[in-house]
Amino acid sequence: MNRYKKLLSDTAVYGMGTFASKLLVFFLTRLYTECLTSAEYGQADLVANVANLLIPLAAAGICDGIFRFTLDRERDKRAVFSTGMFILCCSGAMFLLLSPLLWSFEYFRDYAWLIVAYVLFSNFHSSAAQYIRALDKTKLFAVQGIINTVLTISFNILFLVILPDDSFFNGVHGYVLSIVIADFLVGVFLFVYARLWKDISRRYVDRSLATSMLKYSLPLIPTTIFWWITNVSDRYMLTFLLVDDGEAVTGLYTAAYKIPTLLTLVTGVFSEAWQFSAVREDDPNERAGFYSTVFESFQAIIFLGAVVVVTLSRFFAGILFADAYYTAWEFIPILVISSVFSSFVNFLSSVYVVKKRSMKSFVTSMIGALTNISLNFVLIPSVLEIGGKAVFSGAGLGAQGAAIATVTSYLIVFFIRAFDARRMLKFDMHPVKLAVNAAVLLFGVVSMLCFSENIALLVVTQPISVALIALINARPMIKSANAIFKSIKSKKD
Length: 493
Description:
Radius of gyration: 23 Å
Largest sheet: 2 strands, antiparallel
Shape: globular
Strand content: under 5%
Distance between the termini: 16 Å
Structural class: mainly alpha
Number of helices: 20
Helix content: over 70%
């Protein structure tokens, strides 16, 4: 029971920090949609996502390496951090030398300096945060997440609301710069408060350790890029494939994506605690049982949360979006399915983390990215034109086509990883229950979209979907609730 109590405890702490922080940012959607036009919102999101694409390249993927190698019991933690920071400084310097290339892209020319700052300060913050997370300083990790969010929100309000409309900090600049400044300040806070500077010294830098860390981390660079393509490329392709109103549609699609973020927030919090627990479980036989029990509860929570979000998608859109964005609700139900299988893919990646099989992550994420791009070309445009000439006719589904492409990509990667991960770790994924849950969720999504104008029918079909999911998953949810109750009670005693 100790391992389950540890997992619950860590998840609760991360939840208080990470989830609370992300939830606050989620509710800023209303602020963004009020202060930015749909075109500005789409552009700001694209700029931020280009920076996120470059982050692993500028760090040689080493932030994940710092976390994973610090978890090894036999490692000298100071050697891992010092070696990791040395690699980060070298790769960051290389990124700076190559950064003038950003100015050659006209679309990003006005924001190139922001992208550079975003990348460097994000890696600075992430390296420190991943190190304290691996040291099991969960409370500090949660607190720094809250501080980061409060700073981001404060600068958002300052730049987008308080400062005059003609200020340099309005619009896209203010949106992105808020994130940049917050990352820098929180990184400084961690180095000073946790005295991380004491763990950095040239004498701790280990060449053989650097080789091992890079061998693990470098495949994670294309992995991260491929996931970026799967998650974000559809927004770029909407912008450029829909010639007449691409940026406006991208803004609506970006707003719609915020709602399924509710699910990924929950799974993100859990994953931070789960990876720590999964790596620290030493007994292979016990690990399989641990995985089976946790995955059953995990899928129960995810499916129940998903069907509730689908049911309330129009309500969320009305509350969180400005009126001009309300029609974006139509993209939410399908994007919720993508969030569900994204969560399962993320869960299965922990097997690769435990086994240090980063190449497996690379291959599967590449398949997902290639699938996503191919389907975007087919599903988004009515006619695909190259050089002013029509190449072939597409489905013309626009943003809905982008959502379908994303779902399909995650489904394919999930099936590949489920098969592959179980070859390395024999654990029960409860496939029958998984299939029934997915079928009920799909029923809820289809009825929500097909009967959107028939409120009376939705009042019947959507509660049925919620009730069925709750009934199917009653046993693992009750077990999880009892475990949480016993954990809380034992702490009080």
